[in-house]
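Dear support,

I submitted the protein below through the web form. The confirmation email said the job was done, but the results page showed an empty box. After a refresh the structure appeared. I'm attaching both so you can tell me whether what I see now is the final result or a partial one.
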Amino acid sequence: MKIVTGLISQYDGEVELFGKTGEKNLSAERRKIGQIIETPAIYPDMTAEQNLEIGGLGIACLKRG
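What the results page shows now:
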């Protein structure tokens, strides 16, 4: 996942994302995805929206929706 999201470089092989390959194309396609690499801190008693708001992502996600 770190290679797909661009956090580390690939040394061999090819990454395809949404049917696109090549670093220039992948850069644009990576803007369409999100990834939590580490274990997320979520609160099971809260809704997804409430968890996003606590994590500071609520405003950005709600504006997109």
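Response: this is the final, complete result; the empty box was a page-load delay. The radius of gyration is 15 Å.
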